[in-house]
């Protein structure tokens, strides 16, 4: 590096500094074109030519020599003057190529030490500015390491525990950004967590304080030992495994929920903020609720789910579904919907055991007391109690075997809606001859089965819905309406005991009609379909449906088989989508629409993206042209951490006007009209990490659904194409399995005994795809 007066230093042949011109002195021509302007700490701007083959340390060293800086070059670093981004070896070439304006500043080591000292002293003149700088710089790993090594974590935690207002907001944002690292904050204790819970719950907390506080709790919930990379350490034969010492994966649901229990009303505050006027606050609250639902352990499961139900969280989310102006919440709402599918499946799979579980015993006692019926004995001297309510036997474990705890909850809610009406109905049925009585309890359980079949509550891992399902979130109310429909059909048709399956078939038909167009249909129409339809109209429509399709699929063994194949289909499609991510693909770098927030500017109009084998990073390279990318990651210098992605938003960006339309299966674009084949990888605080446009619908579906299935807290799929694949594979597989049974139109019995599996149980999808 050399200056214009002829003084030189090592590297002068590769890098040149030109001082600023003045009226009294003009720089001598060096014959080299400067690449970047560098501004010193004193405010002097010099023109430089930087050799891209140098390391950042070499560039800083030569700058210090040419500028005659007496301090060691290790005390300095380079940052982008416009964005404050730290210049490191990985982004140096890009900054040189883009002719970015740079500035010579304190090194991360010096900057971190100074900020920690300011946090300790808390001088009003420098304290807030130090926190403002900290929340930006802490995102840089070099700075974060130095900040931690100088004891910054404990000082920052102390600030959070004592400050308030905007100062507290800056400190919380800095802590949240620090927690993006998977190391360095494992010493945060229960006192700190409880303080964050108190901050979140306080009615006096500013909205810009509540947002990062909520995000911090989400990070702590997700820092579950079961999510830790690498092997876990077995603690004992009974206790769950733990993460290695020093790992941040030592928190999780139990630790956070214990502190939320201590602060009365904290969970209620989070749920209430789903009605906030601040979209970001809603999003943070929604993501915290989803994290809690995804990580709740068996010990607190009943308590937590019951508390959420008491707080009417489903009703709050249904209201959000009707708020069409909150597009950013779509992914989080679908994640919540998928979580409730898992909750519903678990309830359906949990046996009702009143002799073991006090909650089950209490619910059954409530139902019995509301019936106002006296138990007794039948003609054979057997106890006659639950059969009076419409069960087939007195063995309640057996009666609820197919619908589990979900069936018990539905029956209890049905009774609780109008206890007097329930008692009236039961007493009325008991006044009839035995063979003319409507078995209310059996009908309730059968309706649960029909609704579970309609909403595909078969698998605990995935929800194939790509649209809002507000009626599903209102499961108990829909169950009550459908049960009332069953009772009315029984009465209007003058049914007897042998007609039970016929009324079930009517109910199945009506469920399909009443719950169609779920994402657009108003609730009052659902009520009308169940409460006001006439028996004759329902029967005539059902007969038309039976003419169009065989009712083989309604048989219990076939429905069970369909459940199994649905699970296998979903897992198969998940693996296929993730394989597409492993292979990688080229995308167009889109232009984000204003509603999509901040975005990183790409260095080229094309981007190749590939998922690493560890499922932790998306590696990519930007280019002005497409080129053959080798296997592996050598050609992909940049990367995005999967854990940083909070949402895969779709229809978010437009294609650049200079992109050849031959590359896209799209009509000509209007000005910044979002492309239907676009998607963005969003974070909660930094806007968009990537804005991409796929070349066709299949690639868009592969990647949006693959990324959604890859994310820890997401269970939903985005595209109708993927949902269609799962449905088609299920239907094909079911037909193949049934060929041997239905080829001769042999009637399927109401129950089948499963014998040993056949020898050729290879999964059929491998031959179909």
From TrEMBL:
Residues 1-36 are annotated as: Disordered. It comes from the Eukaryota. GO terms for biological process: actin filament organization; apoptotic process; cell motility. Pfam families: ELMO_ARM, ELMO_CED12, PH_12. InterPro entries: ARM-like, ARM-type_fold, ELMO_ARM, ELMO_dom, ELMO_domain-containing, PH-like_dom_sf, PH_domain. Keywords: Apoptosis, Phagocytosis, SH3-binding. One of its GO terms (cellular component) is plasma membrane. One of its GO terms (molecular function) is SH3 domain binding. Residues 359-515 form the ELMO domain. The keyword Aminoacyl-tRNA synthetase does not apply. The keyword rRNA-binding does not apply. Involved in cytoskeletal rearrangements required for phagocytosis of apoptotic cells and cell motility. Acts in association with DOCK1 and CRK. Was initially proposed to be required in complex with DOCK1 to activate Rac Rho small GTPases. May enhance the guanine nucleotide exchange factor (GEF) activity of DOCK1. This is ELMO/CED-12 family-domain-containing protein.
């Amino acid at each position: 590096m050399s200056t214009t007066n002829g003084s030189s230093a090592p590297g002068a042949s590769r890098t040149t500094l030109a001082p600023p011109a003045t009226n009294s002195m003009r720089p001598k021509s060096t014959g080299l074109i400067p690449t970047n302007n560098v501004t010193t700490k004193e405010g002097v701007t010099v023109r430089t030519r930087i050799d891209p083959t140098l390391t950042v340390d070499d560039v800083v060293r030569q700058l210090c020599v040419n500028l005659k800086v007496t301090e060691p070059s290790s005390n300095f670093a380079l940052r982008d003057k416009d964005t404050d981004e730290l210049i490191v070896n990985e982004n140096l070439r890009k900054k040189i190529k883009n002719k970015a304006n740079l500035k010579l500043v304190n090194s991360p080591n010096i900057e971190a030490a100074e900020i920690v000292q300011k946090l300790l002293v808390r001088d009003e003149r420098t304290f807030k500015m130090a926190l403002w700088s900290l929340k930006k710089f802490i995102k840089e790993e070099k700075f974060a390491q130095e900040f931690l090594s100088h004891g910054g974590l404990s000082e920052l935690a102390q600030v959070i525990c004592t400050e308030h207002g905007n100062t507290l907001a800056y400190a919380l944002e800095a802590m949240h950004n620090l927690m993006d690292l998977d190391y360095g904050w494992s010493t945060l204790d229960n006192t700190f967590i409880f303080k964050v819970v108190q901050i979140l719950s306080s009615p006096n907390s500013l909205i810009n304080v509540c947002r990062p506080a909520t995000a911090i709790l989400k990070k702590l919930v997700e820092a579950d030992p079961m999510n830790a990379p690498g092997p876990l350490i077995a603690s004992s034969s009974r206790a769950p495994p733990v993460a290695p010492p020093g790992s941040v994966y030592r928190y999780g649901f139990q630790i956070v929920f214990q502190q939320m229990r201590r602060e009365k009303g904290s969970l209620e505050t989070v749920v209430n903020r789903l009605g906030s006027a601040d979209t970001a606050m809603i999003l943070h609250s929604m993501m915290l609720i989803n994290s809690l639902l995804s990580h709740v352990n068996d010990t607190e499961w009943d308590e937590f789910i019951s508390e959420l139900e008491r707080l009417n969280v489903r009703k709050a989310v249904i209201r959000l579904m009707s708020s069409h102006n909150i597009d950013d919440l779509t992914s989080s709402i679908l994640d919540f919907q998928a979580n409730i599918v898992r909750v519903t499946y678990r309830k359906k799979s949990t046996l009702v055991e009143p002799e073991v579980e006090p909650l089950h015993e209490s619910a059954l006692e409530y139902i019995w007391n509301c019936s106002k019926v006296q138990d007794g004995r039948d003609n054979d001297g057997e106890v006659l109690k639950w059969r009076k309510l419409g069960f087939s036997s007195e063995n309640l474990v057996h009666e609820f075997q197919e619908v589990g705890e979900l069936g018990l909850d539905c029956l209890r809610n049905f009774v609780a809606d109008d206890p007097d009406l329930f008692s009236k109905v039961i007493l009325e049925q008991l006044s009839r001859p035995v063979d003319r009585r409507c078995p209310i309890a059996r009908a309730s359980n059968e309706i649960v089965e029909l609704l579970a079949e309609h909403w595909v509550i078969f698998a605990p891992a995935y929800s194939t819905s790509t649209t809002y399902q507000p009626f599903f979130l209102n499961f108990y109310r829909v169950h009550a309406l459908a049960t009332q429909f069953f009772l009315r059909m029984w009465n209007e048709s003058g049914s007897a005991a042998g007609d039970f399956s016929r009324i079930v078939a009517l109910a199945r038909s009506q469920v399909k009609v009443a719950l169609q167009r779920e994402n657009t249909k108003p609730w009052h129409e659902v009520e009308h379909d169940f409460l006001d339809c006439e028996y004759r109209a329902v029967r005539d429509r059902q007969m038309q449906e039976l003419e169009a399709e065989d009712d083989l699929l309604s048989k219990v063994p076939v429905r069970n088989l369909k459940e199994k194949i649905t699970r296998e289909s979903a897992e198969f499609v998940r693996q296929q989508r993730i394989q597409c991510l492993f292979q990688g693909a080229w995308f167009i770098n889109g232009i984000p629409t204003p509603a999509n927030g901040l975005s990183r500017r790409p260095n080229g109009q094309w981007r190749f993206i590939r998922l690493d084998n560890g499922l932790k990073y998306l590696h990519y390279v930007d280019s002005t042209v497409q080129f053959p990318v080798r296997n592996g990651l050598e050609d992909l210098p940049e990367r995005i951490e999967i854990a940083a992605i909070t949402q895969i938003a779709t229809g978010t960006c437009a294609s650049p006007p200079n992109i050849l339309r031959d590359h896209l299966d799209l009509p000509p674009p209007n000005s910044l009209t979002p492309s239907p084949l676009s998607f963005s990888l969003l974070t909660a605080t930094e806007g968009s990490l990537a804005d991409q446009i796929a070349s066709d619908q299949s690639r868009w579906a592969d990647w949006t659904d693959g990324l959604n299935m890859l994310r820890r807290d997401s269970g939903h799929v985005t595209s109708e194409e993927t949902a269609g694949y799962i449905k088609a594979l299920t239907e094909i597989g079911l037909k193949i399995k049934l060929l041997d049974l239905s080829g001769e139109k042999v009637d399927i019995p109401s129950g089948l005994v499963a014998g040993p599996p056949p020898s050729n149980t290879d999964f059929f999808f491998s031959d179909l795809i």
